[in-house]
Amino acid sequence: MEKHILQPRFKDAQHFKDFWSKGNGKQLLEFSGAEVNFNNFEQFSPYYYHVDDLGDQVVKDIYLTKKFNEASREIETYIRNGISEHKDLPESVKNFFAQTQHIPDWLDYNLLKNGAELCMRSNLDSLISLRDYCLIGGYDYAYLNKPLIATEALKKGAVKRLSETLDFWVNVTRYDALEVHKKGYEFAIKTRLIHSYARLSIKKHYKNWDTENWGEPINSWDMMATYIGFSLVFMHSLHKLGNTFSAEEEKGLFHLWKYVGYLLGIPENLLPDDKKQATQYFYLWTSIQPPSDKDSVLLAHSLLNESLENPLLKYKFQRKNLRYLHICCTWFLLDDDVCKRLQIPEVSNRNVFPKTKWMINKVYDKLVSRDARIRKGNKDQMKVLNDYHNIIDNSNFH
Fold this sequence. Notes:
Elements: H1 14-21, H2 24-32, H3 41-44, H4 53-63, H5 68-81, H6 91-100, H7 109-121, H8 123-138, H9 146-150, H10 153-156, H11 158-172, H12 183-205, H13 211-214, H14 220-240, H15 247-263, H16 275-286, H17 294-304, H18 306-309, H19 316-333, H20 336-341, H21 352-367, H22 370-393
Helix pairs in contact: 1-2, 2-16, 4-6, 4-12, 5-12, 7-15, 7-22, 8-14, 8-19, 11-12, 11-22, 14-15, 14-16
Protein name: ER-bound oxygenase mpaB/mpaB'/Rubber oxygenase catalytic domain-containing protein
Organism: Chryseobacterium arachidis
GO molecular function, one term: oxidoreductase activity
């Protein structure tokens, strides 16, 4: 197998320098207190060509030897009930579930609870952060998007894609969700195998895959960056929207995503414990990513226009207004250079809604108890998820 040697090839590029000297990267450095350099680049860079062999082998042994629905039902049985009663299983399946059902020594259930509570307590700000900072900001990294393009995510449509992301995020961030056989654990395992299935499909069918530049499809280093999006970038977004969090909640959020990453097969040494470490890891990874390309712009606009396509709101003016609010939040949360590269439309009075939200959060934080906010946040997030489920179930979104 050909061995690729990776360099921090964009470290002198203008987009990289601007991001870390005056853009969102500069904000992350101030937010985290991290000091960054390239001393550890060679420790991380091999993971650009590293994949989840355990998950891939399960897909080869189960999904690629049976009908898809039959294979899915079989895996579902193992997820929910374990594998002890099943004899003559492929070795790959035994190894896979031995790893995912092994509780690592570092796991702290109280920290998981704190992390879940922060996600719920932040209510709809959590969903704004995921959509208007984490997801759309991720589209600025051209190579990171290549698996989405290769698997024709644009044809599937943003409503379906957003629904799947929301389904995953909500289900892994509830109380006790990540215990073995529970719903969050199930979502993590299924997502891991979807990644493996997609990777094997890309390698088989997408002949133009540029491994040297793009890395292996859905490689471990890109996975690390994606999950830093769910922890560091997500937390930074909440902070920008006027939310506060305790040291325990902050530690809990990173712990939660470290365990989700572990279940997803990301090597443990790529999973940061805190915002300082996450920023240092993210800095190294961004040095191998070029800025937005035409695919990035298509993905960003597909997400922006999701509000217009989504029948959640009955009237056209409501959908246009929702799109406007998401555009305002995107300009507020992402730096101007990223927004311009992604060709986010210019809109008038774009800071009014996010700054109003910031002020309301400051007041709400003082007036409403933490427990009441957790309960309300959980209820509101579940309602949004159920609304999306109803749309997908009762429509032609395939």
